[in-house]
């Protein structure tokens, strides 16, 4: 059975089992890392504690939290990099432990340096092959994603000669090569200049217009406010709040940045 | 298999775009040609030393290529973080391991063909004849040996953190096995008690890489080995490769992959 | 004011540059002399090798001599593990002597022994496992290693003798043998063994008994001188030198000289009875009316 790009959705028997519109579903997720300082089996660090989360189809979900809050760990569970200690996580109704769960997702990791001996075209061809995109369609997809991330002119240049912004954009291109229904973006604008950030933001907007589901983590609260439909704020492994940006702003009577600071318990020092 | 071949293709591309292979090939060719031009006592029939040196250089070069290429595969993926977008796709860790192995093995096989083609030209130009069977057997057994070496280094790349330490340890182990592996039984017989038993057990556990080094047979024109024996050596190599890849996969599967 | 300062600054810079130029020139004159002296020291290949490898070159020379022996047996050769407790070093020189004297007893010897287990039994298919010797002019294959061995350790006398033996016998290259032996003599001017071999080149291969006799006589004198100096030279070599002198003098028909050689030889020989008979025979010939 060939699993090809979008047609994959049509042959997924699991989809009908999930509640309508739920793309990502996390239930009572708990992740513990063994604490190496204490020695094996002598203690553990709790990274995620009883997380329940649901991301609906077609929405842009901002996953916020200070460093060490458990955002990346949650993403790692969704991508199958880390096994959950307890609880469950599924994507399109498929348990994340199964590689097939990742057939309809695109993932952009933070700060990745792609194979420097390849050019953008070859890199995308490689990833397209893994997704079993048919040969005929492969080139069309490569052209369209390179156009989207504005790397058409640099497509034949080796990646090692790319700037940081270009690296990030080629990363975004690889995340889109399978025309995914769900995009998981880990700090997509990290380390980019304002122009680069704006471009990435525009791309996310365009994907949203195309009806894609985007699940992304960021520290740029202004960016989240502009792009996201809903946000979830994680602190010390627990989901503290979840809701649309407008609701949160109304509920806390301040902008998103202050909502965030209140939730993580930040007390500004009075100026002397 | 699609994913395995995709990863393997990537490794092959990496090898031919890097300069390691070209440098080692040019070095081997230069040294061989330089030695070939030396006149020993006005006797132009002398060839065995040249074949010997050329084959030694081929063995050293291919071992270096195999070990260094394989040792950096997984650590480089982790260091540059490309392993995350790769494993975030519908690709299992086992497929990644097998793909890396196949890529390194095929790349080394290609390098071997180039090296042995050069050796064949040098040998035939001096001896005015070439026996194909021993020549093909030498290439085949050499390739099988590299298969075990690559599987061993791949396991090392999961266990040891730094590629340099993995490469050094693996090279020492490989050279040690090739040099003394076949004599461990003799050493064990000379030892008494528990130590002797341990050495004898080690003798049975280690892959006997020295079998695959048939340079002496080629250099001194001993003729070909029985094809059944070659087949036996191939099965032995395949068994070790399977075992080592299995262990690699088991260890890799347990490794947390936090991005 | 500013222009004066700038001018002074410019002069200063020029002076500094001049100073550096003078320094460079002075250093060049000193260093050049030193470098020439060093080059003179390391100009020969031996000097160069000693500078690079130190005393380890002797170890390598021995290794390459053993490699020549391994080549002579087409790779059927013991490793250091097989050699444990057995004879040390090479038997290539013995081989040369055996060929000369017609002995070839150790052909049946094998260092391998019966395989201890299936791994060893299987492994033997991948290594040379039959005792053979090079023949039909293929003996030349050992020569590159002997040449390298001599290059690494020019004081190793065996290397010259062994190479010369194969060059003058199987390979029929007495000129090359002589050239190599003379090279050895330059490095070992007191070596009676090299002179003995050189004499053989002249006697057996170049058919020049007169020169050969002079060389054998020189070899004998060197041996005697070394013995007188208490250096304990090889008695067997002395026996061989005298034997060659007997042969060359006999061929020349110089019976007096033969008698003198035999009288010397009988003192050191292991089979004096045969020699006594020979002496009597020569004495009778000398006493017989012409």
Structure, described:
The complex is a heterotrimer of chains A (272), B (259) and C (290). Chain A is an alpha/beta fold. Chain A contains 9 helices and 10 strands. The longest helix of chain A is centred in the C-terminal third of the chain and has 16 residues, at 194-209. The termini of chain A are far apart. Helix content of chain A is 33%, strand content 24%. The mean pLDDT of chain B is 90. Chain C has 290 residues and is an all-alpha fold. Helix content of chain C is 69%, strand content 0%. Chain C contains 13 helices and no strands. Chain C has helices at 2-41, 45-53, 56-72, 92-101, 118-123, 143-152, 157-168, 174-187, 192-205, 209-228, 235-252, 255-268, 272-287. In chain C, helix 7 runs antiparallel to helix 8, helix 9 runs parallel beside helix 11 (235-252) and helix 11 runs antiparallel to helix 12 (255-268). The longest helix of chain C is centred in the first third of the chain and has 40 residues, at 2-41. Chain C is flat and about 120 Å long. Chains in contact: A-B, B-C. At the B-C interface, helix 8, helix 10 and helix 11 of B face helix 5 and helix 6 of C.
Kindly name the structural category of chain A: alpha/beta
Give the assembly state of these chains. Answer: heterotrimer
Cα end-to-end separation of chain B: 26 Å
Number of helices of chain B: 11
Strand content of chain A: 15-25%
Structural class, judged by helices and strands of chain B? mainly alpha
